Amino acid sequence: MRRLVPFAAALAAAPLVLTACVGGDDVPVKVTGEYGERPEVSFPKDTEPGDELVTSTLVTGKGAQVAKGDLVIASYAGYRWNDAGSRLIASSYAAGQPGAFPSGKLVPGLDRALIGQKTGSRVVAVIPPDQGYGSQGDARHQVGAHDSLVYVLDVLATYSKNAQAKGTAQPLEDPRLPKVAAAAPGRSPRVTVPRAAPPSTLQVRTLVQGSGPAVRSNQLTVLQFTGVLWRTGKEFYSTWSDGRPAGEVLGVGQDIKAFDEGLVGQKVGSRMLLVVPPKWGYGAKGLSHYGIKGDDTLIYVVDILGVH
């Protein structure tokens, strides 16, 4: 999918087999402030970060527990820390929008800090280099090979691979459009393409009507979706197959035009059918990595799970 990668997603890394200590009272930084508000983080003077992972749950939430493989939505402040001092490198509080963290695909220290936490929690993690970006560092965010990471995260929500639309089914009786059949939790809906020419304009239909808030532009939206080629009837991408929902910022040109036009204004809990001619998809260039040609019409079934 065409999208920009926020710093939260950039924390994804290949899994490593490492040892670590996880504690509660020995976090070497001081964090003040209320859950949901921008934290104040104080670093000790004349002290270098240690070589072990240290985490602490400053506020214990009472919501759903984060499992490996979930998409975690969290507000966060991230720092680089080394023997020369500390520096803020990313903050969702400043940006006014939380981040989407794909647990199980993050740098190892952040995965360990998040998995098992409950929504409503504030967590602080001091992550040594070998459980952060390792010897390669991360030049994009000016993180060096010997830099530790310090994160304060307010866990807002967590979404499992089985999350799906919850609402009232809306029958679709148009023979010119694909038929969509529900599948077992965690699996993509089944799409049957009609034996007909595809439509020449974007088609948006509600298959399940949700009752949650409407999606607004420039809002982090959590989606499950599958994409199918009209030409072959075969799936080219699916968040269900990928193992977790996706976090998308809609209405600002970060994704394909069909998502911006077809999903903004729809309600959380809905399942939407989008039939997408090239003009509303990937255009004349297509997207060869997914087998999409420049003249391909795409079919998306999209579950809107949440907005943040």
TrEMBL record:
Concerning its family, UniProt says:
Belongs to the FKBP-type PPIase family.
**Signal peptide start and end residues:** 1-20
Organism, by scientific name, is Thermomonospora echinospora
A single MF term (Gene Ontology) = peptidyl-prolyl cis-trans isomerase activity
Q: Which leading EC class covers this enzyme?
A: isomerase
Q: Where is the PPIase FKBP-type domain?
A: 69-159, 218-308
Keywords attached to this Swiss-Prot or TrEMBL record, sorted alphabetically, are: Isomerase, Rotamase, Signal
* Superkingdom, natural source: Bacteria
User: Sorted alphabetically, which Pfam families does this protein's record hold?
Assistant: FKBP_C
Q: Per its record, how is this protein called by name?
A: Peptidyl-prolyl cis-trans isomerase
Which reaction(s) does its UniProt entry say it catalyses? [protein]-peptidylproline (omega=180) = [protein]-peptidylproline (omega=0)
EC number(s) on file: 5.2.1.8
Question: What PROSITE patterns does the annotation carry?
Answer: FKBP_PPIASE, PROKAR_LIPOPROTEIN
